[in-house]
Amino acid sequence: MDLGLADAGLIASFLAFSLAIYQLAATIVGYRWSLPALLRSARNAALGNAALLLYLVLTLLVALERHDFSIAYVAEVSSRSMPWSVTVTSLWGGQPGSLLLWTCGLAVFSAVAVWRAYRDAPALAPFAGATLAAIQAFFLFLVTFVSSPFTRLPVPALDGVGLNPLLWDDGMFIHPPLLLTGFMSFSLPFAFVVAGLLAGRLDRAWLARVRRWALVAWGIQGAGLLAGMWWAYHVLGWGGYWGWDPVENAALLPWLCATAFLHSVQVQERRGMLKAWNVALIVAAFALSIFGTFIVRSGIITSVHSFALSAVGPYFFAFLGIVLAGSLGLLLYRLPLLRSEGEFDTLLSRESSFLVNNLLLVGIAAATFWGTVFPALSEALRGARVAVGAPFYQQVNGPLLLVVLLLMGLGPLLAWRRTSPGRLWRLLRWPLATWAGVSLVLLAFGLRPGLAAFAFGACAFVAVATLLELWHGAAVRRRSTHEAWPVAFWMLMARDRRRYGGYIVHLAMVLIAAGAIGQASFQQEAATTLPRGGSVAVGRYRLTFEGLFERRLPDLDIVLAHLRVQQDGREIALMEPERRTHRGWEQQPTTGVAIHTTWPWLDDLYVLLTGWQADGSATFRIIVNPLVSFIWLGALLFLAGTLIAGWPERARLARPAGRPSMAVVPARGPSLQPAAPEVVLSDA
Fold first, then answer.
1. How many CB atoms lie within 10 A of CB 154?
2. Does residue 664 sit within a domain?
3. Which H/E stretch holds residue 68?
4. Fewer beta carbons within 10 angstroms: which end of the chain, N or C?
């Protein structure tokens, strides 16, 4: 019998689900009864599952490219009129496809993590493998039985509905896959936290593995958030890059928890403190990643990013409950192993600054979570949905974020355990002088409001404090090695990538903060209707409307306006905002934003064509966004710092050569099965 793509996909989905169940059962049985062959089989099952999921993604992609409209998902998200690039991105443009991509990413990451764990951390490998297999089985259950992208239509469609024209953008190649991968990758540190709790092995090697995977998840999620900000700014046409939308918030929440963990884990490594807190942060990050996936797909939260109400919501809710209950039980069971080995000596210490940093980040996450779920809670309890808008988040989170920013400059200057006031003053005097100087100069030049001058001064404080740390480190190295300054900086980072990569990320956050402060404090906006030849002044710019023009393509009609832009009487740009109408989507035209960045002011002129009249006049929305370019520069610096901090260190110990071996050793420390032997598999 000749199998179609839908049949092949359904069969492969069922096989992948069965293989995940087998991996889970084989790991548990193989560990409990000391069966190395069964553990090897479970490890190989993880590789097989990754291969099957890649096959599923490829099969769905082929179905989309072939326009196989006998498959419901293909008919829903694609059409014959869509270009091939948009057809590719439609793979994750709907709920079943995005769930499949989530699951495929988990399968690939799990295969890598499990294989490495059996080689490098055999005491943890069975527990981590079982945890990842359980998560994989849940998502494969959804992909196979609840929300399959391979479900057949009773009668094949002649053509598909197609993807929303708002998603016909190259950003679809970057932002959704990054966020889906970011959500997914929080499964890895969570799995190793569960493994450590189950095995009773909460040592430094375990913590390093958790930290490594947490950094991977944090970096991918951060990149996804920044890509989403850029996409919203350039494509959605509402003049901003962040609107505190529920789905935006859901993506931010696990990143905040991971940020807190990456700071507080240093306290555990250095002082043996905050152990239970760090476990709780990783559990919270994973739970919030599931929560984020849940609210997008449940339909209970109203958002421009979310999918329609579907049957997957209750399954996510139940899975989230199991994760929280199971994690809490394990945490309470292992509390004796998570006792702190030290105490906070004084407020003037690095560990105290990390603790305050953590409390602030968790406070921001809690406020954001509350604002996100409050509309749904109010509707459930009172029968009326009460919206929570951006002003709530700005008023609550704004001051907390400013204090977090200041701690980025202060924390690295503090010593562990105790910092003398005299030493602190010597380290802080130049950053504080810079803060005061920048604030006073900006106020003297008439910068209003005054709070913005204070905030810009805070950015300067953090930048100077961080740059001084980099300079001092390079100067010490240069004195001992006589290297040139560029070489000294390069070697400094190469010798301690984690520390100095973190400093680069701090500088990136300063740039992002400066851009956000500039845009929020000094944005200027005008909505105006101009006749042909008419002009309007917005800020320091004058825009003159020269007329409307039409462009017809086979599947698209474009109306664009010509606007000449002058600054101080000198022409600086010709801007062409557009309105696009796609065939079949006449009731949903899209906006082509015109953006021009001016130098040296670093203003973004942001122009939208909102309508036109029969007499040739046109209506525009014109926005001047100061310093937004700082955000995109900061995004690039964030990626560079994350890569530096997360780049693997060169292996210090060579592994002995030889054939793969098996060893059975008694488990060390308390465990859920203290009498059972531990099976260790190692490969040459």
1. 6
2. no
3. none
4. N
Counting the structural domains of the chain, the total is 4
Question: Are 397 and 436 members of one domain?
Answer: no
Query: 388 or 361: which carries more pLDDT confidence?
Result: 361
Distance CA 340, CA 342 (A): 6
3-state secondary structure of 201: coil
Q: Is the pLDDT of residue 656 over 70?
A: no
* Residue 100 exposed, middle or buried by CB count within 10 Å (0-12, 13-18, 19+): buried
Residues 355 and 368 in one domain: yes
The answer to the question of residue 681 being in a domain is: no
C-alpha to C-alpha distance for 580 and 583, rounded to whole angstroms: 10
Q: What is the structure's pLDDT at 301?
A: 64
In a domain, residue 428? The reply is: yes
516 and 595 housed in the same domain: no
Q: Are both 182 and 316 inside the same structural domain?
A: yes
* Residue environment code for 411-444, b if the CB has 16+ CB neighbours within 10 A, otherwise e: bbbbeebebeeeeeeebbeebbebbeebbeebee
Copy the structure tokens of residue 26. Answer: 């084989």
CA distance 13 to 140: 7
The pLDDT tens digits for 295-305 are 876 656 655 44
Task: State the average pLDDT for the chain.
Answer: 88
Q: Is residue 653 part of a domain?
A: no
Are 125 and 185 in the same domain?
no
Residue ending a domain, choose from 373, 401, 429: 401
CA distance 356 to 264: 10
Question: 133's torsion region: left (phi>0), alpha (psi -120 to 50) or beta?
Answer: alpha
Pairing of strands 578-582, 590-592: antiparallel
User: Which H/E stretch holds residue 679?
Assistant: strand 677-682
Q: Cα 178 vs. chain centroid, distance in angstroms?
A: 7
Query: Is a pLDDT exceeding 90 seen at residue 448?
Result: no
Distance CA 223, CA 182 (A): 9
Distance CA 576, CA 563 (A): 6
| 364/453 same-domain check | no
Contact 75, 93 (CB under 8 A): no
Tell me which residue of 441, 375, 363, 451 sits closest to 407, measured CA to CA. Answer: 363
Could you tell me the residue range of the domain that residue 545 belongs to?
A: 524-630
Smallest CA-to-CA distance from 227 within 290, 172, 296 is with: 172
Question: By the 8 A CB rule, do 287 and 323 touch?
Answer: yes
Q: Are residues 15 and 116 in the same domain?
A: yes
> Residue 44 corresponds to which tokens in the numbers above?
């190989």
CA 547 to chain centre: 42
453 and 318 share one domain = no
Question: What is the predicted pLDDT for the residue at 490?
Answer: 87
pLDDT value of position 433? 92
Coil, strand or helix at 609:
strand
User: Three-state SS for 552?
Assistant: strand
The residue to which tokens 């800020």 are assigned:
539
Q: 150-154, 294-298, 372-376, 566-570: which range is least confident on average? A: 294-298
Q: What is the pLDDT of residues 273-318, one digit of tens each?
A: 999 999 999 999 999 999 988 887 665 665 544 444 567 888 998 9
Parallel, antiparallel, or unpaired: how do β-strands 590-592 and 594-597 relate?
A: unpaired
- Predicted TM-score (pTM) of this structure: 0.91
- Quote the pLDDT of residue 211: 96
Task: Give counts: helices (H), strands (E), the chain.
Answer: 19, 12
Q: Can you give the C-alpha Rg of the chain in angstroms?
A: 28
